[in-house]
Design brief:
Blueprint (H helix, E strand, L loop, with lengths): L8 E2 L5 E2 L5 E4 L4 E4 L8 E3 L15 E3 L8 E3 L17 E3 L6 E10 L15 E4 L5 E4 L8 E8 L4 E7 L3 E4 L5 E2 L10 E3 L6 H7 L6 E3 L2
Parallel strand pairs: 4-5, 6-7, 16-17
Antiparallel strand pairs: 1-2, 3-4, 8-11, 9-10, 9-12, 11-14, 12-13, 13-15
Length: 216
């Protein structure tokens, strides 16, 4: 039954109940506890959390400190940024139909923010194809990728975008393609800082980045 500090809710049986150890309001301190009945902060969460959308913080953010004195204050531990792995194998292509055209395919993986990996190796060029083609293209999925840009070169021409797809296969029947700036490098783990962060400071603070530091 609800007690002082309980946040009542209806359970699956339609009965009014509470779960103080997981959801508790400390009225005297104006504090909300999730996963605790003894919140020590305005919002005290004990356990893992997940935010699927953007999170805006108007004050300083502290990691392993409750008294951050900078926009981002990390104490001890370290920091790791994980990039998407670059595609290392070429797509597989199964052509259909006959004609006089040749096609070469590539993929680029994108993360949820639209950052891109480097381009994959080229698939073996398929020849004697019609235009537009009817080529089934598949590739190895990249862990963490939100989508893929399927690229092609027709008859040895420029590499252009066929389609952005969410899965790891696509049948190319496109009569036209879109100009595509081929990424020069993997941008999925760029770490941008306003100002400069010296190598000595990185080492002293124990920061670690899988990817690329960008101090601009």
């Amino acid at each position: 039954m609800p007690t002082p500090g309980s946040v009542p809710f209806y359970d699956s049986q339609g009965s009014l109940t509470a779960d103080n150890s997981n959801f508790f309001w400390d009225d005297s301190g104006d504090r909300m506890g999730i996963g605790t009945a003894s919140p020590g902060y305005r919002l005290d969460v004990q356990g893992a959390g997940n935010f699927a959308g953007p999170v805006a913080i108007s004050g300083n953010l502290g990691i392993r400190t409750i008294a951050p004195d900078s926009s981002l204050h990390i104490r001890g531990g370290g920091m790791q940024l994980e990039a998407l792995a670059n595609p290392t194998t070429a797509p597989a292509v199964t052509p259909s139909g006959t004609g006089t055209h040749s096609y070469t395919y590539y993929i680029v993986a994108l993360d949820q923010n639209g950052n891109k990996t480097a381009r994959s190796p080229a698939a073996t060029t398929v020849t004697n194809c019609p235009a537009p083609p009817n080529n089934a293209v598949s590739w190895n999925a990249i862990t963490g990728a939100a989508s893929y840009d399927l690229l092609r070169s027709a008859d040895g021409g420029a590499i252009e975008l066929v389609q952005n797809v969410s899965g790891a296969s696509h049948t190319d029947t496109s009569a036209s393609t879109t100009s595509y700036p081929v990424p020069a490098r993997n941008t999925t783990a760029d770490f941008r800082i306003a100002g400069k962060l010296s190598t000595a400071l990185r080492e002293r603070q124990g920061l670690r980045c899988q990817g690329r530091w960008n101090d601009g």
